[in-house]
Amino acid sequence: MKKIIFLSLFLALIGGGAFYYNNYYFNAQSILDNSIFKEKKFSVEVKEVVSSDNKIKAYLLEDKSVLLVAINLGFKKMGNAYLKKNGVGLVAEGVFLDGAGNLDRKKLRKFMKEKGIKIGFDVGRDEAGISLSYVKDFENDAWNVLKDVIYKPHLKKEDINLIKEQIVVQRKSYEENPESKLNKLISKEFFKSHPYGKETYPSDEELLNITDKDIRNYLKGYMAKDVISVGVAGSIDEAKVKEFLDEVLGNLEEKTIAEELPKFSPIYNNEVKVVNDEHSKQSFVLHISQGIKRLDKDFYPFYVADFIFGGSGLNSILNKEMREKEGLTYGIYSYLSQSDGLDTWNVFYSATPTNMEKIEKKLNEEYQKFYENKISKDDLELAKSSLMSSFNLRFASLFNIAGQLQVMMAENLGRDFLEKRQDMIKDIKLEDVNRVISQKMSGKNRAIFVVNGKN
């Protein structure tokens, strides 16, 4: 559920297995049509599996009718904010599958494709994650490949240099994007010297100083048992998951070398920070205000209030007032963002420079109206219905399910979260939502950042 300043939604299909079951005897759609996951009701129990040394736990949702397995590994404190050298995580992400064990880059990728094995490595701001999906017939191959990638990466100098060159190209493209300029403005003026203020892409000097030793130390030192969370879905039972925890993850370090982030005290004083972009015909604006922790008792009332105000897309108050009635923008939305060091409530929009001033005035009015008028019982019931219906869309594939299980563990939501979540939404009371609006959603304390386009 964590979002960084710009919403990054990672919804992937099983992918790697497609080569196998599309080219051989599996019919993926037929398999999934007959699966217990089809109805997405999740009355089936999520099981907790523990490794032999009691150091690693996994949440498992089993379905033997699906001859596929998806596994998600999450590592807290492995994200870019925790790294001493900026860019190490980005380079590691790029070379993660560039050869391991007895297979060089080309052979490794060819082997994975032939066996229907898919591995991904993603480094975020707070955490990093590894995804593994495979066809059941090639389970041992998939496990062995993952072990080699984790414990025996090649990290050849030529591969690292190639990734560095690609990062330079990506950085140039990124810097020309007006939304990226907004991100940089926020890093500089809001986060400042805090680790969250690091540049998304390392400088040439920072890249030059990243070595294979840095990457090895990163993968070994931050990929540890005390920060791992595991989600597993598909054709695999408890005994086999325990075997995976022991055999594949058993040699991870006991404790991470990551240090705690320094405390961050955001300033919400309604000050507007602006940077001009003479190449863009659009202006991009982000309003940041105080949010809420995921396990706070008021999280769901706040979540519903945000959904009604700007989080529900075309049906939100902001979209109806700014886009449908006034035609001032193609897109405006609000969202909650959680991270290790900061929880925020944000409103983002883009508009022509001419319309931006009109939107700002109208947005202030909408903040005030929402704060004063609150919501009605009908508003609440409609929001509940929408949130309960859309929840199932998170589970379009086994990979999504494994990802949700991993997040449930990482965020301490409990293994019964899938069964309880709909009732948690259903039980939200009108007075609680309106109380949260009164306490947290006045819109009076914000930090405002603008990339001003050219008229």
List the SSEs and their pairings.
Blueprint (H helix, E strand, L loop, with lengths): L16 H7 L4 H6 L13 E4 L6 E6 L5 E8 L12 H8 L9 H11 L2 E6 L4 E8 L3 H13 L5 H19 L2 H14 L12 H5 L3 H11 L5 E7 L3 H10 L24 E5 L6 E8 L8 H13 L5 H9 L5 E8 L4 E9 L1 H21 L3 H15 L6 H13 L6 H10 L3 H11 L6 E6 L3
Parallel strand pairs: 2-6, 7-11
Antiparallel strand pairs: 1-2, 3-5, 3-6, 4-5, 8-10, 8-11, 9-10
Helix pairs in contact: 3-6, 3-9, 11-14, 11-17, 12-13
Structure description:
The protein is α+β, with helices and mostly antiparallel strands. Helix content is 43%, strand content 16%. The chain is built from 17 helices and eleven strands. The strands form two sheets. Strands 1-2-6-3-5-4 form a six-stranded mixed beta sheet. The chain has a five-stranded mixed beta sheet with strand order 7-11-8-10-9. Strand 4 and strand 5 form a beta hairpin. The radius of gyration is 23 Å and the shape is globular. It starts with 16 loop residues before the first helix and ends with a strand. The relative contact order is 0.16.
